[in-house]
Design goal:
Blueprint (H helix, E strand, L loop, with lengths): L9 H12 L3 H9 L12 H12 L14 H22 L11
Length: 104
């Protein structure tokens, strides 16, 4: 029993995950519901700043040799990604359900 998730656009999914990662879940929810366009209009330079900030927040740190550090940050990042994607799917499939935003 379960669901199979398929995405049409990795870029669109990444943009939604980035919004969730930067505490903009309400905006992501509005995009999923069709209330607003997925083409987000930000002040000049803000979109790039949000993108860089989301990448930094979701990047596992590396040691001096370029090897990913193992530990809580890696597992935390993976959990945040899973929770964000699960929330996006749940919002898409059950738009009227009552649910909390993912943890940051």
């Amino acid at each position: 029993m379960g669901d199979r998730w398929e995405i049409n656009s990795e870029e669109d999914l990444a943009a939604l995950v980035a919004l969730v990662a930067k505490a903009q879940a309400i905006h992501a929810e509005n995009i999923l519901s069709g209330t607003v366009s997925g083409a987000i209009v930000f002040e000049p330079g803000i979109e790039e700043e949000i993108r860089k900030s989301a990448i930094e927040a979701l990047t596992v740190p590396k040691d001096l040799h370029g090897v990913e550090l193992r530990g809580t940050k890696k597992w935390h990042r993976d959990g945040v990604l899973f929770e964000s994607i699960s929330w996006i799917v749940a919002r898409k499939c059950h738009p009227d359900a009552v649910m909390r935003d993912p943890h940051n």
